[in-house]
Design brief:
Mean pLDDT: 87
Shape: globular
Number of helices: 14
Number of strands: 12
Number of domains: 2
């Protein structure tokens, strides 16, 4: 598989290995894996980044170089890198401040095995008792015509290039948001089209969650309910939508929560019924609204979910209990409609400001 960033990978290899670059790329599975994980570099800020697994590679290979093993033998006798050092280091890297430990512990190895199942080994070697880590040196040394070539420094350069490309793309996105925000009073149609363009099916999952939140926050915030514990003390209050944490976080299936109604919202890219029911189970079958990155209308989505549920659970009462937990389905057409209603009510500037603020927080951009 080749994409625009493949040229950067091969350019780095040519710089370091000259006319052997193509042979090294073809014979090194870890370079091919990195190529797969960097395909979003040329797709702008709205394409999902792959920093978790790439940075797991990065910090271990960086440790390998710092200890001098890219030039000297003896890595098999090395005591290994400490997890705490690796974990801290990956969080110092661009976009890495909120990364968790999954890639270092199992995610990278699992995904690498899927792509190279016949290889027989994985990138990360771990001693669970001592919490020490090594990078599999078999993946760093390529034999070309009987001559060994170590690609450790090339890997560091390639991932640095990828991080820089993603950072440039995100800065371009923030600049565009700021420009649109400043123009929105005189060029409202352009500003509106810009936000609608962010609600595309190929959008980065994190950005979709951010934009969805910003739209729904202002869609609901002017709606009121009457609430109280005593009949003579009931008060009118506005609905308030809160974002409960980082996007794609392991937070029990709650992305947004609404006060004072206590409504739960989960943002998802899939119509896989198992994922929906898993989210429902995680919150003890509490009613939940799904915000879905799909162009389909909600009736079609509900029919698909019910059909898949009936295939998986051949018991009508079980299927119905799960379906009853789906309070509402909000697909892209509904989000866009609600956004346009917010624009008509004068909240375009508020939504743009919220998108900028939430994006800077999520992508660890300096405020």
């Amino acid at each position: 598989m080749e994409h625009l960033f493949t040229r950067i990978i091969k350019r780095v290899l040519i710089d370091e290995f000259g006319d052997k670059a193509d042979s090294i790329y073809s014979s090194c599975p870890i370079l091919q894996y990195i190529n797969i994980k960097t395909r979003s570099a040329s797709r702008g800020s709205k394409a999902r980044g792959s920093f978790g697994n790439l940075y797991a590679i990065y910090v271990l290979v960086e440790n390998y170089i710092e200890e001098g093993f890219h030039k000297n033998k003896g890595y098999r006798d090395y005591e290994g890198a400490k997890f705490s050092d690796l974990f801290q280091r990956q969080r110092e890297l661009p976009f890495g401040q909120k990364l968790q430990n999954h890639a270092l512990n199992h995610k990278l190895n699992q995904e690498f095995r899927k792509h190279f199942f016949a290889l027989g080994y994985v990138p990360i070697i771990r001693d669970a008792e001592t919490n020490r880590y090594w990078f599999n040196e078999h993946l760093l040394i390529c034999d070309i015509d009987g001559q060994e070539h170590n690609i450790a420094t090339s890997i560091i350069r390639i991932i640095d290039e990828y991080a820089e490309a993603k950072q440039d793309a995100f800065e371009t996105f923030i600049t565009a948001c700021e420009r649109i925000k400043n123009l929105q009073e005189t060029e409202q149609d352009e500003a509106t089209d810009f936000v609608v363009g962010l609600l595309a099916p190929n959008m980065d999952a994190r950005l979709f969650e951010i934009v969805s939140y910003c739209i729904l926050k202002y869609y609901y915030h002017n709606q009121t309910v009457f609430f109280g514990f005593e009949l003579d003390s009931i008060e009118e209050g506005n609905l308030r939508l809160y974002k409960t944490g980082r996007t794609n976080a392991n937070d029990g299936g709650i992305d947004f929560v609404m006060k004072p109604l206590g409504r739960f919202f989960q943002v998802t890219e899939t119509t896989d019924v198992r994922k929906y029911f898993l989210d429902i189970d995680k919150i003890e079958r509490y009613p939940i609204t799904f915000v879905i990155k799909s162009d389909a209308d909600t009736e079609d989505l509900e029919a698909r979910i019910r059909k898949k549920a009936n295939e998986q659970y051949p018991v009508t009462t079980i299927v119905q209990k799960y379906m009853d937990c789906i309070e509402e389905l909000i697909s892209l057409p509904i989000l866009i409609q609600r956004f346009r209603e917010c624009v008509e009510e004068g909240y375009l500037s508020n939504i743009l400001n919220e998108i900028i603020r939430q994006s800077k927080v999520e992508f660890n951009y300096e405020l």
